[in-house]
Amino acid sequence: MSKQISSFPGSFFSRMMTAALAGLIWLGTTHSAVAVTNDEKAQTAVHMLDYVSVDYPTFVQDGTVLNPDEYEEQLEFATQSATLLGELPATPQQPQLLAQAAQLQALIKAKKEGAEVAAAANNLRLAVIQAYKLTVTPKDVPDLNRGAQLFGATCAACHGATGHGDGPLAKGLEPEPSNFHDEDRMRMRSIYGLYNTITLGVSGTPMQPYSQLPENDRWSLAFYVSTLRANPEQQAQGESLWQQGTGKHEFSSLKDLVMHAPAEIEVKGAGLGTVQTYLTAHPEAIRSAAPSPLVVTRSKLAETLQAYEKGDRDSARQLAISAYLEGFELVENSLNNVDKDLRSEVEREMMDLRAAIAKGVSPEALSAQIDSITKLLDAADEKLGSGSLSGTTAFISSLLILLREGLEAILVLAALSAFISKTGRRDALPYFHLGWIFAILLGGVTWYVASYLLTISGAGREMTEGITALVASAMLLYVGYWLHSKSHAHAWQKFISTQVTAALDKRTWWAIAGLSFLAVYRELFEVILFYEALWAQTGSNGQTAVIAGIVTAAVLLAILTWVILKYSVRLPLGKFFAATAGLLALLAVIFAGNGIAALQEAGVLTADRINFITVPLLGIFPTIQTLAAQGIALALVFAGMLATRSQEKH
């Protein structure tokens, strides 16, 4: 970073930013070979608004313009921001954004106080980020050691080894490179503002864009630069306050930390600025203090009520869904092991809450329902120990998660493997193995993505589970019908004598490969995400118990697989085919119910609850939609049986 990352002194920075903006607008409005993406336009608008919020108060005070040139350039920044926002794709929020941009220009023209203009610019900046879903949060905890290495390699030549603006190339530069120890200016700069400058650079100056650096490197560099102004005493004081609970609400995520400048945070409460100083140097403290799933549920329920009271039923419904998916669902396995009835009651009440929102009950009635759910969550907190799970609970949860989820996959794989062995069709083995091996590889990718790149939302998780379950159900019905059609000696002899056509042969084997894949990946996907949640709920002793549970479950699954394969191969051919077809039909019915239930939890399908039993192991849930799906699957099974008998008669 050969010149300045941020906080460019007055006129030089303003002139260079104006040149950069002019260049960007020219690139966006001509047929240049360089294309400016919508994301780049939005990022640039955010970049300009960030600087308006920082620099305007310096040039206009008490209604008096202290520097006319700088004042005009601040107005130009606001105007160009509005222009860029007008060129972005239409969204429901765009009219409001343009109105805010016009208001910002009006405030600047009226020479309003710096605090008012800075607040308007910051509010618009945050609104743009939300409307166009710009990247504002590191995907992983930034590495400040890496940031220090990057600073030494790219920034120290101008800014100096310690960031005082006294590097060997600084001599003769006009103005001098920024001093990152300048308290007055650095307290006005957010980490996101620094990240944005590192990413976009400043056209026409030695400050080039560093977009070629990996995203996390840019965040690490921005974090490191933000720490340079702090001294050890401030960080120690901030650590003490953080451990006492100060700032836990204000800094519940890395996004909260990077989006607000120290000056914004300081006015929100005593000690928060010092806590931010500590967290900037130790961002891992935020990740380790992430709220528990039940805390997330309570927070989302409170937001649900607020949205509903404002008349925004759509948002209230989405928040109610998130309250379950992003919170409670992550602990339901653990709660199920200690109080199954309580787990069922919470699920039922949260489903009723979504139904109440859809019906449009009064805000008072909805508030009463949420209060009832909150009391149940309190009881769940007590059952789970209000913190880290005990070693016994962690072991049982770990054991049952893998045993339950793995059993369905084992049943499908064992049936397919025994079928291939029984028929002697070794040409099907590559298809069979291709399916489950690819599922394991994709499961590894899923684990990496969920752990290191992004957080898979609850809705995304349920959508994946629901769709794969329904596809697997359809394929189970197909393969089950095929097997049942060969369960009679006459049909099997005919199949053997003709060996079927190549096309039918290939279609059947690819169906087996697909089933092998879906059976493993669907369960593996769910297992990965549930184990991540379980791991986060346990302490060091509990994590040892989780591993022990995984090992025990794996051993039990291996034994079950051996037993199933041993005794299935001994069955006579006709009975084996009939038994396998029956097993696959049963699994198809189970998957149909589970698939619909998952889509209901994701909010894709409505859930009309009726008075009926709940048996999750069999995919039975007391809603019209899940039971209807299972009824259809059963009807198809019986239709297939009748069709097979009809063919046998002929």
Strand content: under 5%
Number of strands: 2
Q: What series of H and E elements makes up the topology?
A: HHEEHHHHHHHHHHHHHHHHHHHHHHHHHH
The helix fraction, in percent, is: over 70%
Unreliable parts: 1-35, 452-459, 486-504
Mean pLDDT: 75
State the helix count. 28
3D architecture notes:
This protein has 650 residues and is mostly helical. α21 (391-423) packs antiparallel against α25 (502-536) and α21 (391-423) packs parallel to α26. It is elongated. It has 28 helices and two strands. Residues 1-35, 452-459 and 486-504 have low confidence and may be disordered. A two-stranded antiparallel ribbon has the order 1-2.
Task: Give me the secondary-structure topology.
Blueprint: H1 10-29, H2 38-59, E1 60-61, E2 64-65, H3 68-87, H4 94-109, H5 114-131, H6 144-154, H7 156-159, H8 183-186, H9 191-200, H10 215-227, H11 232-243, H12 254-259, H13 262-266, H14 272-281, H15 284-288, H16 293-309, H17 313-325, H18 332-338, H19 340-359, H20 363-383, H21 391-423, H22 429-453, H23 458-485, H24 489-498, H25 502-536, H26 540-569, H27 573-601, H28 624-649
Helix pairs in contact: 1-2, 1-3, 2-3, 2-5, 2-9, 3-4, 4-5, 6-10, 9-10, 11-14, 16-17, 16-20, 17-19, 18-19, 18-21, 19-20, 21-25, 21-26, 21-27, 22-25, 23-25, 23-27, 23-28, 27-28
Keywords:
28 helices; single chain; about 650 residues; 4 domains; mainly alpha; disordered N terminus; two-stranded antiparallel sheet
Provide a brief overview of the structure:
The protein is mostly helical.
